[in-house]
Amino acid sequence: MFSVVPGYSPGFKKPPETLRLKRKRARRSKTAPGESPKATIPCPTSDSAFSPRPYPGSRRRNPFLSLENRPRPSSGTSPFYSTDATAAGTDLVTGNGAYNSRGQFLNGLQENAPICKEEFSEATSVDSLINDRYLATSNAIVSSSPSYEFPADWSIKTRLLFTSSQSFAWADHLKAQEESQGYVQHCRAALINLPQSIQEPKLSTELRCAFQQSLVYWLHPFMPWLQLFPRIGADRKMTGKNNPWCYDEAVQHVLISEWCLSFTSLYNLLKAKLCPYFYVCTYQFTVLFRAAGLAGSDVITALISPTTRGFREAMKDEGIEFYLPFQEVRKRKWNALASHLETGLAKDSETTGKDAENDEEQGMSDDEEEGFSWLEEMGVQDKIKKPDTISIKLCKERNEVQMDHKPESLVLVKGTNTFTLLNFLINCKSLVAAAGPQSGIPPTLLSPVAFRGASMQTLKARSINVQTQVQSHYKDIFSLEIVGPIMPHCLHSLSMLLKSAQNGSFSATCHTHEPTAVFNTDISNEQSIKKETLSKDLRKCGLHPDTLDQLTLCPTLGKSSIRLLEMNNYVYTWKV
Question: Would you call the peptide bond into 306 cis, given omega within 30 degrees of 0 as the criterion?
Answer without folding.
Answer: yes
